[in-house]
Amino acid sequence: MPTLSIQKTDGCQVYLSETSKNAEIITSKSSEMNVLIPMADGDFAEFPVPEQFKTTFNGSKLVTCVSDIV
């Protein structure tokens, strides 16, 4: 599986090919990131990479998820 690592980056667009649509994207200390995926009609669909997260303690460990606060 292809893996991309993006670190300390402000503003990037990642274009994935048809064969790399299942790539893992690992990010840290980055913002304004978008991933563009090729669609069946030949156009690209743009998906933002989340920048804001919520971390809570569930009684035994920390749990982090994407924040839905806009």
UniProtKB/TrEMBL annotation:
GO molecular function: actin binding; adenylate cyclase binding
Sequence ranges assigned to domain C-CAP/cofactor C-like in this UniProt record: 1-49
InterPro entries the UniProt entry points to: Adenylate_cyclase-assoc_CAP, Adenylate_cyclase-assoc_CAP_C, C-CAP_CF_C-like, CAP/MinC_C, CAP_C_sf, CAP_CS_C
GO biological process, one term: cAMP-mediated signaling
Protein name, UniProt field: DE Adenylate cyclase associated
Organism classification: Eukaryota, Metazoa, Ecdysozoa, Nematoda, Chromadorea
Annotated GO CC locations: cytoplasm
Superkingdom per UniProt: Eukaryota
Stated family: Belongs to the CAP family.
